[in-house]
Amino acid sequence: MAVDYQKEGKIAIFTLNRPEALNSIDIVSIQELSKALIDFKDDDELLVGIITGAGDRAFSIGADVETLLPELKKTRGQLCGSPPNIMRGLEVWKPMIAAINGIALGGGLELALACDLRIASEKAILGMPEVTLGIIPGWGGTQRLPRVIPLAKAAELLLTGRPINAQEAYRIGLVNKVVPLSELLVAARQMAEMLCRPAPLAVRAAKQAMLRGMNLSLDDGLELERELNDFLATTEDFDEGRKALSEKRKAIFKAK
User: Fold this and answer.
1) How many angstroms separate the CA atoms of 91 and 208, rounded?
2) Which residues are catalytic?
3) pLDDT at residue 69, as a whole number
4) Which residue in 44, 197, 229, 251 could disulfide with 244, CB within 3.0 to 4.6 Å?
5) Per-residue confidence band for 78, with pLDDT thresholds at 50, 70 and 90
6) 9: which residues sit within 8 A by CB, 6+ positions away?
7) How far is Cα 216 from Cα 171, in angstroms, rounded to an integer?
8) Quick check: is 187 in a domain?
9) By residue range, what is the domain housing residue 111?
């Protein structure tokens, strides 16, 4: 199984499971990841997803050079039959966390960038080396990286292919937190549990407003925000949140 997909209560854990190949992404991996992400998206019991890599060496070194990269030449950059995933083609408004356990290069870093929050092992290495192979990132790296970190730093990583360590990634805002490898999944689960506490529909609406709003004018973004808030005001969770506040108790949200 190239991707191990587990459900732990309200949390889904996706593990890239090719440690012998440093969790490089081949055709089977991208197919299995797509199937798991769609199941996560459609499962009403699941609220937060965590993506990590098997072993202690790599999150993912990106596309498998023996299987996926040759497809670029055949299909002029459109990976043949590539199924939808969070990097391209699949919108998942549930929050997602990347637990970067080791090397995250190319498509591996692009997968982490497609998540909302990133926690890195203190020994993690992150980079976009595609230009050293004569190509550019093809799973959103050129678009998401400058939206996450300052443009000058994004340019440095994209144009030179130079990797950086976890501490520099934290300093420039590429990751939210750096922890010892032994504490990585514990920290990711703690963050996931924190994300499970608020009203789920509100969390998803906040993510949608934030990400979609980045591509809109301020006026259009404010209109999107209003529309989403108008919808939330009709939900059972909104009524429960107000009632719990007045009764000084913990709200019991149902994502309805």
Assistant:
1) 9
2) 110, 130
3) 67
4) 251
5) low
6) none
7) 28
8) yes
9) 3-196
